[in-house]
Design a protein that fits this description.
Blueprint: H1 9-13, H2 15-21, E1 50-56, E2 59-66, H3 79-87, E3 90-93, H4 100-110, H5 120-132, H6 145-156, H7 168-179, E4 183-185, H8 189-196, H9 201-216, H10 220-232, H11 236-240, H12 242-245, H13 252-261, H14 266-278, E5 283-288, H15 298-304, E6 308-313
Parallel strand pairs: 2-5, 3-4, 3-5
Antiparallel strand pairs: 1-2, 1-6
Length: 319
Amino acid sequence: MKKLLQAFSAALLLWGSAQAQSPGTACPPAVLPLAEAPGEQSAAPQDVGLLWRLQRDGRTSYLYGSMHIGRPAWSRPGPALQEALQKVDVLALELDGSDSRTQAALARSSRADKNAALPPPMQARLDAQSRAACLPAQSLAPMHPMLQLSTLTVLMARWDGLDMAYGQEIMLTREARARGLPIVGLERAEDQMNALIPKDRQTLLHSVDEGLKQLEQGRVRPAMLRLASAWERGDLGELQRYEQWCDCVQSEADRAWLRRLNDARNPHLAAGIASLHGSGRSVLAAVGALHMSGPQALPRLLAAKGFTIQQLHPVPNPN
């Protein structure tokens, strides 16, 4: 429920065959395509998430706190985001998942190596979770254990109607292509993988064990649903308190890993947004909503770089 990487799409593509092979298994329900979702095509799109206007050097850019999984109702931009798209010269994402070089880098970085081999009892637990997700046997085996675990976490969201196919990055990529807007990545795939995958074996085993406990004890779904609900209504205060309610920070090691994955990347992301804006282009930068929280929150870092920042959605309460 932290960073959902492009590499996870391979597991999602396996979903249909998994259901076909397991007719008697209680599998998470498939999320309906938008064309089949009752009422979604006719309903007017609403603004969701968090949107800021950034102004500096006589130009206007935008910062959008996105969600990497979503519902069919979130697959079209609301009025405020639509207006931002009409006014910018470039879309900036954490990664440009439509870029073939990025896809190749993710594929290389996601492969398991001999140092990532899990002890047999832990591997058996991971395999059991893969079967519970109705994935074909060994379908995740080529992936690093951390990516297998993250894939299973993402798939768990389908029980609550959330799917990576309706993530905001996918929607924005589609919108940018339709408008002829260039797309740039603010990070390299290798850097994201380095943040996600612990290099120290002891830390890796601890992280996999904790992630498996979350799945085995049923702690993933409530936290993911709470995160998605907070994001939908643009509740920045709830996102700020993520560590207190996510049930995913059990130790200082967990806290350090989460901050490496989130807070530690923010200065680089802020520098990339400022550089694009400084090059003379107006940019819509879409970055995961948790990057908008904490002492290293992106709006705070961008304000320190001289941007005047105004929140557009949700509209702040004057009281």
